[in-house]
Amino acid sequence: xxxxxxxxxxxxxxxxxxxxxxxxxxxxxxxxxxxxxxxxxxxxxxxxxxxxxxxxxxxxxxxxxxxxxxxxxxxxxxxxxxxxxxxxxxxxxxxxxxxxxxxxxxxxxxxxxxxxxxxxxxxxxxxxxxxxxxxxxxxxx
Length: 141
Prior knowledge:
Elements: H1 5-36, H2 43-92, H3 98-140
Helix pairs in contact: 1-3, 2-3
């Protein structure tokens, strides 16, 4: 079953809120750990500090790749929808089909919004997964 645009917005807000709360928990823990680390660094601290940078790069790359893949998969649907709208506009010049054109445009807008929401969720998913996992891991100690 296809998700409604409203539920897609709520899912995106949920993901963003979880990331925000997890970051608010992780950042102070990591800053505290960095300030209390002894020199020379222990193997555990060295590993943790290295992971801090690489995980962000990994999540960003995974998000961009997932977004590019999703965009490539949705491009034919977007092109077909745009072609249909162009055909409806062309038919509108031949007779009174303004209602159908308006409905098609609003349906097209809704579909475009849904596509953008899906792309955003797809791009954020790797970062969301890492941030929430870090919060759980650091909570345990």
